[in-house]
Specification:
The chain is of the alpha/beta class. 52% of the residues lie in helices and 17% in strands. Strands 3-2-1-4-5-6-9 form a 7-stranded parallel sheet, sandwiched between helices. A two-stranded parallel sheet has the order 7-8.
């Protein structure tokens, strides 16, 4: 059975992607650590279309053993993941010398390692079947250093470079990889990352807007999408100025006394 696997699907961007794929009659496998949120999402989606498979799998993507269980689950159910959306992730806004190191190591596991693993496993299946789409959610943060959110920015730079690289390799197999690079958008991200200051300075998009733009770009086999004109200009400008200046400006969007 062909199925679309979406991580981080209990809320926010992942949930919005699920609605879009369901609307186009794709079976769904929704993955998140939030089991209650997954059940609510499934209930909501089932009310929209009860004729398609809407499966859920609780998984802590910071734990490789749980990721292995997810992979085994898809094999046991004979699922062919022909669409993969890696939208799970979180951030942490804190001075480097005060950061919770365990939290930030977990951040790297979720934002980078899980995305790498799922892309590798299901990318291979897509290549064998000569079809597939992968959406890896990066951020405009991936284009610049981010003092006070250093791990998050670094993780999104990893996603950006990894996705561009594997996209080049997989295109000969008719597998298309989109790197989605939004700016701030409304979700649970702010609460978890504690970066209210940034969102007060920058008007965020809605998650459904970002998902729709990403979904359409994926269908068109685009390689990278930066959402919003201001975000595109921000990324462009970073190429024109010294990195030290870009880093300084970036810091001032993170912290009032930077």
């Amino acid at each position: 059975m062909k199925i679309t696997l979406i991580s981080g699907a209990a809320s926010g961007l992942g949930k919005e992607f699920a609605k879009l794929y369901l609307k186009d009659k794709n079976n769904l496998l929704l993955v998140d650590i939030d089991e209650e949120g997954l059940n609510k999402t499934k209930e909501e989606l089932t009310s929209l279309n009860s004729s398609l498979t809407i499966d859920i799998f609780k998984c802590d993507l910071s734990n490789i053993e749980e990721i292995k269980k997810l992979v085994n689950y898809t094999k046991e159910h004979n699922y062919f993941v022909n669409n993969l959306v890696n939208s799970a992730g979180f951030g942490d806004c804190e001075d480097f010398l005060k950061m919770d190191i365990e939290k930030n190591i977990k951040l790297n596991h979720v934002n980078c390692d899980a995305l790498l693993c799922l892309s590798r496993v299901y990318g291979e299946e897509m290549a064998k079947n000569k079809e597939g789409h992968i959406i890896n959610v990066s951020s405009i943060a991936g284009f610049m250093a981010g003092p006070y959110m250093c791990t998050y920015h670094a993780s999104k730079a990893y996603v950006l470079l990894l996705s561009e690289s594997i996209g080049y390799e997989l295109k000969k197999h008719n597998v298309h990889v989109l790197t989605l690079c939004p700016g701030p958008f409304n979700s649970n991200f702010v609460k978890k990352a504690h970066n209210d200051f940034t969102f007060k300075k920058i008007k965020p998009f809605e998650a459904n807007e970002v998902a729709l733009k990403g979904y359409k770009a994926s269908l068109k086999n685009k390689k990278i999408l930066i959402t919003g004109l201001k975000n595109k200009l921000t990324v462009f400008i970073t190429r024109l100025f010294p990195r030290s200046l870009v880093t300084s400006v970036s810091a001032k969007t993170m912290k009032e006394d930077a």
